[in-house]
Amino acid sequence: MTEPTKDNTFCFYPFYALVFKLYENQDLKAVAPCCMMHDTWKPNIDQVNSVLSKEELEGLNPYEIFYHEKFKELRKNLLNNVRDSNCATCWKQEDKGILSHRMYSKWLFEDEFNTDLREVDVSISNKCNLACRMCNVGSSHQLWEDVDKLEKSNKLRLFEKASNHSLRSHNLPQDVKNNYLIQWIYHNTDKIKILKASGGEPLYDKNILDLLRKFVKDGNSKSTELAFHTNAILITDEIIELFNEFKLQRHTFSIDGVDETYEYIRHKADFSILEQNIKNWFKKSNNIHIVNINFVLSALNIGNIIDFLEWIALMFFEKIRCNIFISEVRPEGRGIDIKNLPIEYLKSVQTQILEFKEFKIKKYDFHYEIDKLLSLIDHAIQNNICNLKKLYNEIVLLDGTRNQSYKNYLDFSLIKILENV
Ligand code: SF4
């Protein structure tokens, strides 16, 4: 079986997966085989990368999408060392020397590798319990509160400039519970072997929970794996019971730091509740296969990363296999991008990470994306912008709407840097 390597363009996702996350009203306006494809835009067109256009998607069911000529062409390209332009997210990362998303793709099924739709990854609304600093209204409706306050104080344009227009995303997943694609999944639970969901916060959305109950009712949950991208704040006993009805769980928890750093970034979350919830979930679940943690690297948490890695070890070491994935904050170059930090600060964090790598990593035996982390910091040093004003503006403008001060949350060295702006 072909495997993704640096010397080829192969990727498994287009052979078994579809992602439905971007809508216009009730209609899907983009489709991808992985959640990363939509992170980059088509050159010269105001549209994210998508295998089919909104017009081409009209009226097609998931099978028709999956076997569409354009998907066939994508598969052909990826098998033949052609860098398909839709996969620019991966090529850009690889050109930076970073292990791209495709490198982690795998054939996850027991039978022989073939082309067969088995996984769907859905977002069906922007409803969320949190208002994270790097997020946008397309993924959390709670951020409208910040938009309103910034607008009323005439600071919205300033914030948009500082954050590279991050707040008001164009990709607004509306409440699409009656969308025909979601309905298709609802009526074809036997066909879905891996159900992925993100949001918004999938556990905040009653429609996602109804979809899970339908899998149970149809008797298909025991042959379906669950892979939710969740902030883990809403995992109750009732939800654990529902999760236990499925074949296995391999969720990804979004955790971008520990203690105050976490609470500052993940606004409205409480770190002790997160900890309790994860422990409770761990104790009462009977089908956890693996735990993935996604850490969105930004100027706000880079100084907290060693504490974060130690905390992960404390939570999961010798209990379960744990993968820690590091993502870049988007859009590139926004105020809180690590490229806006001074080189000396980046180098001091880099030294701490190298020490951690040397003395702790082997002991913990987790999959840490430490090399990716180091290459992202290296990239930020090589392409340093050090626009401290932009960093400061993005931080304090949001502090203003939230009645907060970064001085109560961030690491001491970063506070010092910000105080001198
Ligand atoms: S190559 Fe990258 S962008 Fe393309 S489908 Fe694979 S993971 Fe997604």
Blueprint of the fold:
Elements: E1 17-20, E2 23-24, E3 27-28, H1 54-57, H2 62-66, H3 69-79, H4 88-95, E4 119-123, E5 131-132, H5 144-152, H6 156-162, H7 180-187, E6 194-198, H8 206-217, E7 225-230, H9 237-243, E8 248-249, E9 252-254, H10 259-265, E10 266-267, H11 271-284, E11 291-297, H12 305-316, E12 322-328, H13 343-359, H14 361-364, E13 367-368, H15 370-382, H16 388-402, H17 412-419
Parallel strand pairs: 1-4, 4-6, 6-7, 7-8, 7-9, 9-11, 11-12, 12-13
Antiparallel strand pairs: 2-3, 5-10
This protein binds iron/sulfur cluster.
Short description:
With 421 residues, this protein is α/β, with parallel strands linked by helices. Helix 13 (343-359) packs antiparallel against helix 15 (370-382). 38% of the residues lie in helices and 12% in strands.
CA distance, first residue to last residue = 54 Å
Q: Residue-averaged pLDDT, rounded?
A: 93
Low-confidence stretches: none
Number of strands: 13
Order of helices and strands: EEEHHHHEEHHHEHEHEEHEHEHEHHEHHH
**If you consult CATH, what is the topology of the largest domain?**
pyruvate-formate lyase- activating enzyme
CATH class of the largest domain: Alpha Beta
CATH architectural group of the largest domain: Alpha-Beta Horseshoe
The rough form would be described as: globular
Q: What number of domains?
A: 2
Count of alpha and pi helical runs:
17
In percent terms, what proportion of residues is strand? 5-15%
What structural class should be given to the helix and strand makeup? alpha/beta
CATH homologous superfamily caption of the largest domain:
pyruvate-formate lyase- activating enzyme
